[in-house]
Write a structure and sequence with these properties.
Layout: E1 8-17, E2 24-34, E3 39-43, H1 50-57, E4 65-70, E5 73-77, H2 85-91, E6 93-96, H3 108-118, H4 123-136, H5 152-165, E7 170-174, H6 182-199, E8 202-206, E9 218-223, E10 226-231
Helix pairs in contact: 3-4, 3-5, 4-5
The structure holds adenosine-5'-triphosphate and magnesium ion (MG).
Length: about 240
């Protein structure tokens, strides 16, 4: 598999939900930049617009205005600039959601292997890579189980494996460590950092988790729909 690279740039992004009296301005003016190989934190109070920002960047919802760039391709500038949003979502963005959405009738291995298979990777190779990811996330022993048979933390680790499976240039993670104990939370962050370095992935991690916040080198704070950048502790993960 070839690695696709390219950072993320977000300029003056605005998102208004609804119209008229009931309109909510969830993002006012967001500016953010994440380089290939970098893992940045995104923190802010409940309702500050964190999930909205990730959904815009992941092309799940459409921003109201502003600009978003992946690599050197403008994907949004006061309207989508690429014709095929499904391919963008499938091949270029890995999503780890607040709640893991695994497909209930596929076993763990096939949940992880599915996107690469849909992207045209032969089944055998996709499953082999899925098993490697499950092993690095410490859930290989559950490879044949169905999602309903897993604990919440195990489901979350499988959903992280799934987000990594297509080696997307961008990974967006919304509270990925919330259901995990501190040792497993740190091992997830270690895997994301390794992924970022080896595959030159740009990774944004939304979190309230005090265990992992000190590991970021850079953090964006979001409040009232606006971002402020801050230097993080960048604590070593070794
Ligand atoms: N589909 C929607 N329609 C209308 N308003 C919405 C919608 N989704 C979110 N909002 C509002 O937009 C604002 C930002 O919501 P968002 O989900 O992005 O916050 P968040 O920072 O992710 O919060 P949390 O930490 O609780 O997950 C909130 O005021 C929320 O009520
Ligand atoms: Mg949220």
């Amino acid at each position: 598999m070839t690695y696709q690279t390219g950072g993320i740039r977000i300029e003056n992004l605005r998102k208004v939900y609804g119209h008229g009296d009931t309109a909510v301005e969830a993002l006012k003016s967001v500016n953010m930049q994440v380089s290939p190989g970098e893992v940045v934190g995104l923190v802010g109070p409940s309702g500050s617009g964190k999930s909205t920002l990730l959904k815009c960047l992941g092309a799940i919802i459409e921003p109201t205005s502003g600009r978003m760039t992946l690599g050197n391709e403008v994907i949004f500038e006061d309207g989508w600039k690429i014709p095929d949003l499904r391919t963008l979502r499938r091949d270029r963005i890995g999503f780890v959601f607040q709640a893991p959405y695994l497909i209930p009738f596929l076993n763990v291995t096939d949940n992880v292997a599915l996107l690469p298979m849909l992207a045209g990777i032969p089944n055998e190779i996709a499953r082999k890579r899925a098993l490697e990811l499950l092993s690095s996330l410490d859930v290989l022993h559950r490879a044949k189980a169905e999602p309903s048979q897993l604990s919440g933390g195990e489901q979350q680790r499988v959903s992280i494996a799934r987000a990594l499976a297509n080696k997307p240039p961008v990974i967006l993670a919304d509270e990925p460590t919330a259901p995990l104990d501190s040792e497993r939370a740190l091992s997830v962050i270690r895997i994301l950092n390794d992924m970022a370095r080896l595959a030159q992935t740009a990774i944004i991690v939304v979190t309230h988790d005090e265990k992992i916040i000190p590991t970021f080198k850079r953090i964006y704070h979001i409040r009232d729909g606006q971002t402020v950048e801050e230097k993080g502790e960048g604590r070593s993960l070794d």
